[in-house]
Each structure stands twice: as structure tokens, then as C-alpha cells.
Design a protein that fits this description.
Distance between the termini: 40 Å
Radius of gyration: 17 Å
Helix content: 10-25%
């Protein structure tokens, strides 16, 4: 049986993203969604019109080593 306290420990390789999807009103039924992804830890925001580049971006962020946040 696993200990639930492990769920509350910081995950060294976890990342947090917000993803927003919408359709371009100037392109009725045509080009698919516009996708915005924000990497919450860095504030970096990117926009995509295709799924694979969005997935590649997120995988790259998860796989790359992150510097610890600057302390004040």
C-alpha cells in the first residue's frame, strides 16, 4: 500500500501549463483551432495552429532541466 504523503511532495520534473483553445472567427470551419500554451513557471507563452508542435513544445519543457526560481 502506498503512502499518500508522497502525492504532496514536490515533483522535480513536473511542469505546469495552461492551454487555451478557440476558433478564428475570420476562418469559418476552415483552419481548426488556435492554441495558446503558457508555461506557468516561466511565464513563456506560445501560440500554435497545429497539435503536434504544441505537444512537442510541452514535451521539450518537461524533458529539459529547469533552473530553480530566483529567490528574493
Amino acid at each position: 500500500m502506498s503512502d499518500d504523503t508522497d502525492l504532496h511532495q514536490p515533483q522535480p520534473h513536473s511542469q505546469l501549463f495552461t492551454v487555451r483553445l478557440w476558433r478564428d472567427p475570420g476562418q469559418p470551419g476552415g483552419r481548426g483551432p488556435i492554441m495558446q500554451v503558457k508555461h506557468v513557471l516561466s511565464g513563456e507563452t506560445r501560440y500554435f495552429r497545429a497539435w503536434q508542435p504544441l505537444i512537442d513544445y510541452m514535451r521539450n519543457k518537461v524533458d529539459s532541466p529547469q533552473r530553480p526560481p530566483d529567490s528574493c
